[in-house]
TrEMBL record:
Keywords: FAD, Flavoprotein. One of its GO terms (molecular function) is flavin adenine dinucleotide binding. SUPFAM superfamilies: FAD-linked reductases, C-terminal domain (SSF54373), FAD/NAD(P)-binding domain (SSF51905). Belongs to the GMC oxidoreductase family. Residues 75-98, 248-262 form the Glucose-methanol-choline oxidoreductase N-terminal domain. This is Pyridoxine 4-oxidase. FAD binds at V214. Its cofactor is FAD. It holds the Pfam family GMC_oxred_N.
């Protein structure tokens, strides 16, 4: 079996499948092993973007975000995007997975995924039947380290009737709590750190091939016989009886399309011969946006974050922030730093905090397509950000809610003035304009090889590529819909669930 991509999903799949010593597993990764010490430092996560191990994708200009091009960092390294991510661990609300169950059956419902969540997790803050204690992936719930300004922000929420939660993964999601983080002993724990430690990488039946980029699949009829890979500019082939694409929501559909599997017109425009006309490959792209910059200057110096800056998410129902059940539609995040989009000026570090806001269930749908036949041709990434009035309207509510909390008396000790958007921004048109100028990716692209039971679905409920017997896709691309929260926990649960089913098949 050949696993393509040693990111979040690929690390889990290769680790779990190689537990069976009779299963020979090859794991191919375009990047190399991490060596930059900054990766492990939670405070440095925003500085990693643009370094050698970032694919550094860019979107096409987005008409509803003031025609801006958005940077899309993605990890090109063993550990994938979990080496760059912000470490927030959020499973999502159980209702988020109902569309998954409708698409693929009960195993993809929250209760179907729960054993995978539990198996993955090392959570020791308290005992709960829905939580795992002895899995590989540490989930750390901070307490004493939480910044005083974040405590005041959570107190403001509670004073407004928002539910106080122990954390976001033990029941309901709507409410306020410190962020749960993939941190062990003060250091980032990537999914590869957790699932591919040296003793796993030393297994005789697991071969990790780094710095090898898969160009395309080698197809014969309804089967793949292997992959074409490039190393140092040289192309070779690797044979396999079974191929599992774990290359992520950008790269998995691109590999399919470079192999001739995709929408016939799209492939023609990219100069690729179409072998299987599959219109949905690369479509259904979903991503969360965050509006950077409801920024407040502080009356006194703000001590630096002791975690990863963004210390508390608050999930809410915009129509009634006191509602504590059901899947929330907005999210706020308190950041112990000024966080403003490019082109907007904010006070220096240590003299401002920010309340970010976002929409948990965007209805805009985008697409990813190749611009040419080779891996060096930059992908066309068009998320169609804020294309629907639904998304723009919910963003207005989210920003208004952020400001209400930011101006609450519980923050009086810290807040001086609202710097961004600033008091002049009041009308809905003003809010729309600010959102358009300040919305940035929350880094959660998903859905580009959606799973479903219908004929157009890219993969079936077993995550098998429709029309091909021995190709599977297991990563963020198979999500039919994006969950409420950051999606890494769900990616790991998908991989755990698929690996367990595959091992017993
Ligand atoms: P990835 O982890 O991206 O793995 C794909 C792997 O495949 C990579 O290692 C890549 O190099 C490799 N690959 C790709 N193409 C090829 C090829 N052709 N040949 C060989 N190998 C290939 N999520 C959260 O839950 N919480 C957060 O706080 C959070 N913050 C984020 C912040 C940033 C800056 C980023 C970038 C992401 C963040 N995410 C967060 C999202 C989360 O990290 C991803 O959703 C998750 O890692 C996706 O897992 P994946 O396995 O689908 O893809």
């Amino acid at each position: 079996m050949l696993v393509v991509g040693a990111g979040s999903a690929g690390s889990v799949v290769a680790s779990r499948l190689s537990e069976d010593r009779s299963c020979q597993v090859g794991l191919i990764e375009a990047g190399v092993m991490p060596s930059d010490p900054d990766i492990a430092d939670p405070l440095k996560w925003t500085m990693l973007q643009g370094r050698a191990y970032d694919w550094a994708y860019r979107t096409v200009p987005q008409p509803f975000t003031a025609n801006r091009v958005h940077e899309w960092p993605r990890g090109k390294i063993v550990g994938g995007s979990s080496c760059l991510h912000a470490m927030a661990y959020v499973r999502g609300h159980p209702d988020d997975f109902e569309p998954w169950a409708a698409a693929g059956g009960e195993r993809w419902s929250f209760s179907g995924l729960l054993p995978g969540f539990v198996r993955s997790e090392a959570f020791t803050a308290f005992d709960a039947p829905s939580r795992g204690r002895s899995g590989p992936l540490d989930v750390y719930l901070p307490d004493a380290e939480v910044s005083p300004v974040v405590r005041a922000y959570m107190a403001a929420g509670r004073a407004m009737g928002i539910s106080a939660l122990t954390d976001h993964n033990s029941g309901e999601l709507a409410g306020t709590s410190p962020n749960s983080l993939n941190i062990r002993a003060g250091r980032r724990l990537s999914v590869a750190d957790a699932y591919l430690p040296p003793e796993v990488r030393a297994r005789p039946n697991l071969a990790l091939l780094t710095a090898h980029e898969v160009e395309h699949l080698l197809l014969e009829g309804q089967r793949a016989t292997g992959v074409a890979v490039v190393r140092d500019g040289e192309t070779t082939t690797v044979s396999a009886d079974r191929i599992v694409l774990c290359a992520g929501a950008v790269s998995s559909p691109l590999i399919l399309m470079r192999s001739g599997i995709g929408d016939a017109d799209t492939l023609k425009q990219a100069g690729i011969r179409c072998l299987a006309d599959r219109s949905d490959v690369g479509r259904n792209l979903q991503d969360h946006l965050l509006v950077l910059g409801n920024v407040y200057s502080t009356k006194k110096p703000l001590p630096p974050s002791r975690l990863q800056h963004s210390e508390s998410l608050m999930y809410l129902h915009g129509s009634d922030i006191t509602r504590s059940t059901g899947s929330p539609d907005i999210v706020l995040a308190c950041v112990v730093a000024p966080s403003a989009a490019d082109g907007l000026s904010a006070p220096p570090y240590g003299s401002a905090f920010t309340i970010l806001c976002g929409v948990t269930h965007p209805t805009s749908r985008g697409r990813i397509a190749p611009s040419g036949p080779g891996r060096a041709d930059a992908p066309i990434i068009d998320p169609h950000y804020l294309e629907t009035e639904h998304d723009r309207a919910v963003f207005r509510t989210a920003l208004k809610t952020a400001r209400t909390i930011g101006h609450h008396p519980a923050l009086d000790e810290w807040r001086d003035v609202e710097v961004l958007p600033g008091s002049a921004v009041r009308s809905d048109a003003d809010l729309d304009a600010f959102v358009a100028s300040a919305a940035s990716t929350h880094h959660h692209p998903a859905g580009t090889c959606r799973m479903g039971g219908d004929a157009d679905a890219v993969v079936d409920p077993d995550l098998r590529l429709n029309g091909f017997d021995n190709v599977f896709i297991v990563d963020a691309s198979v999500m039919p819909t994006i969950p409420s929260g950051p999606i890494n926990a769900a990616v790991v649960a998908i991989a755990e669930t698929w690996a367990t089913a595959s091992a017993s098949a």
